[in-house]
DNA sequence: TAATAAACGAGACGGTACGTCGAGTCTTCCA
DNA sequence: TGGAAGACTCGACGTACCGTCTCGTTTATTA
């Protein structure tokens, strides 16, 4: 192959990884638009040219980090205990736990900024990170008893992820109460007696059941209901 | 007042506005992290010092733009025809229409980047722009017949806005189908486009088959309405 | 004037001089082609941009140094005691003394390199340094009793200077013996260290004396002549 | 021997020459301090390592070029017709002719710069190029009828060469008039009203024709004398 | 006829300096 | 005395070469 027969010294894997790690650290420490290639190269013990040889731009570098998985401590699996609502609530909690860590939140914000500035990063970000998270969430919704159809599962997953990202961007903490309300929104629609956020709207519970709609929904709702 | 009695030349309103407009244009044209104060000053016909006199940093400048309303063609009112689902669907459509314009999307993305990088901008962004949009949406949900409680209305509003922002960031178009699914998610919870998708919930079948969109929405709305 | 009415901060004379001095030192220390603008700026306590603002290239910087007189410890006056030969021999000795100092020789070599690489520097070098030296030497020759005509005085001056420069470039020391021979060449032409060296052509002696031109020359020649 | 019995591939003469030719071309095209080993290697179709294997530095490379004779189109023989003055004037003309060619002058200037920057190159330059030229000129002077003694012949030769080099460095053209004056200076010492530059010195004709031998030199001197 | 070893082209490596751009500060003049 | 113009220091940018170091290949010599 033309590839294998290429002459000249081969690319140093060690250096490649050192650069990516340095980039991740810089990203967490200074954010996307303060990224300094000089600093990254120095931290990686590499020459600047070596960085530029493989990554023509800041965004390409960040994109590679994404691809390499350095930036996705987010992709934890969605549990499956049979109760979709409870499962997603648990997953959401873990997710929020990650985002609450200063380093991770800085990283995600930096990544959001990178995605905002660069189409390439945005697409990579979507395809390699949030897309897969989203798909995992959507898959869990599809396999729930209510058999939520594909498009809706996607929309629901994006609503969850989008709301979390939004809170992160505007610096609003994702409190347990908020997560509850979010899950309620996705699982109960308008009938939000909420997973307990609502107080004293006992009637709400009825109405939800009264919906007479899905047994699946019912059970899911019931699952998170404090009082069966 | 001490203000009015201050000696010397008074601040030039003309210049102030020229700076803000130049900033907005730069933001739309180059994004947040490529903002150049030099360019802004030149475009505004102002000295750099004049810019720095009033705005100590890039983010303060952007924040002022936000405050001034240059960046919020987004705050269009939520209609109220009595049908909350239809109203919000309509509002979402308008919203998506704004975001589909290249200049506006560039602006919002730049603003998201600014918010990601700067706490100050993030808070301003929230308080002056998305917060009020969110509140308008939440308010509409609260006044709906289902009397969605406060926390849930907020969560639902953020789910809508967050999903839209997320789509913007990852460069996924907000198709009408997606908006439909989003509204369905918020209004119908688990029952998707129809209860029929659920396993063994006969009642749902009708609505799902009724499918389509407009009709579906109608029925979906009806379906989730606790009190017909 | 358009110049005097220019607005904005005025050029800092302090900085200008610091840059030129740093350049001179760099030139003596590292030579022309190892000049580092970074180092010059740092040594001068100036920003690189300030250097580049005023001097678009290394050669322009060096040329300015020349013009400013930093590089011409060479222009010592040619004495005039009435004996041109003795005067120029003395001047040549002083000249050689300068060139023997390591710092000065490094500077001149650097300058020669700069002149070799850049037309601009070459012309400046000629007009501001060697040209004036040459003219001083030529002037002394013209005012000698032999009234050497203009073009020849120039050629003789360039022969002297050129020979010195050549010795400097090829690292040959300018010994007193060499300086003697050089003066002999210029003042006695073919007759070398003395008319007697010629192969018995008495006429030659006549012609030289017969020139009638100079008793002065005669005397000057006699001065260094071993055999009167 | 140890040399001939060495194992392994032998040095490629083709490559060696290609490198030297590329160096010469680079030198003429860009000058000494802009020499790029990268470019030379590329132009020679050689790897950088091959260049470095044989020439540890830019100056060694240039020195080798000198040694190889690539840089000495200058060493043309000094004619010997019996009239030293006329011979050297002719040689000087040829010499000036070489220096007038842009490529050659660029090469010599580059070489002067190299000599200015590097002791090694300077010594090589002297020993292999100008030294031999100088010696040829000096030898012609010594065999002249006036039997100019060794030291003076050297000084005179260096005066000629130095003056030419100086003119080259400061970008002053070596006009025929200048060459005449130079020859006059060396051959006539103080009495020169200048050979060719002077008009109306009929006597000059005689001297030139008078050729002969010793008288020739004598007469040549006389020829330039305005006053017999 | 192998095995061995040096030189070869290619080109990636850690670095240094380049010349440019922008940030934010500090004058100087004008209105 | 506010504001334009613009020079200042500082630091990062992305590029060009430096001289060194693998790579895989080619060509001699030696076993």
From TrEMBL, chains A, B, C, D:
The species this protein was found in: Streptomyces corynorhini
Region described as Disordered: spans on this chain: 193-228
Keywords: DNA-binding, Transcription, Transcription regulation
Database matches in Pfam families: TetR_C_11, TetR_N
GO function terms (MF aspect): DNA-binding transcription factor activity; transcription cis-regulatory region binding
Gene3D superfamilies found in the cross-reference section: Tetracycline Repressor, domain 2 (1.10.357.10)
Protein name: TetR/AcrR family transcriptional regulator
DNA-binding region: 36-55
Cleaved signal peptide residues: none
């Amino acid at each position: 192959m033309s590839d294998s027969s290429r002459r000249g010294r081969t690319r140093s894997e060690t250096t490649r990884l050192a650069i990516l790690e340095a980039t991740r650290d810089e990203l967490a420490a200074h954010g996307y638009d303060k990224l300094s290639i000089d600093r990254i190269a120095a931290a990686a013990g590499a020459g600047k040219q070596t960085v530029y040889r493989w990554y023509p731009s800041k965004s390409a570098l960040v994109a590679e980090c994404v691809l390499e998985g350095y930036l996705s401590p987010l992709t934890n699996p969605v549990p499956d205990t049979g109760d979709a609502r409870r499962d997603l609530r648990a997953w959401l909690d873990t997710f929020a736990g990650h985002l609450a860590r200063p380093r991770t939140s800085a990283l995600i914000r930096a990544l959001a900024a990178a995605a905002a500035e660069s189409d390439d990063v945005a697409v990579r970000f979507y395809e390699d990170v949030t897309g897969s998270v989203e798909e995992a969430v959507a898959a869990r919704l599809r396999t729930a008893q209510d058999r939520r159809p594909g498009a809706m599962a996607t929309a629901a997953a994006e609503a969850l992820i989008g709301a979390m990202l939004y809170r992160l961007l505007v610096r609003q903490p994702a409190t347990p109460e908020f997560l509850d309300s979010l899950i309620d929104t996705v699982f109960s629609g308008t009938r939000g007696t909420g997973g307990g956020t609502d107080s004293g709207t006992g009637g709400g519970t009825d109405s939800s059941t009264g919906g007479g709609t899905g047994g699946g929904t019912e059970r899911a709702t019931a699952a998170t209901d404090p009082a069966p």
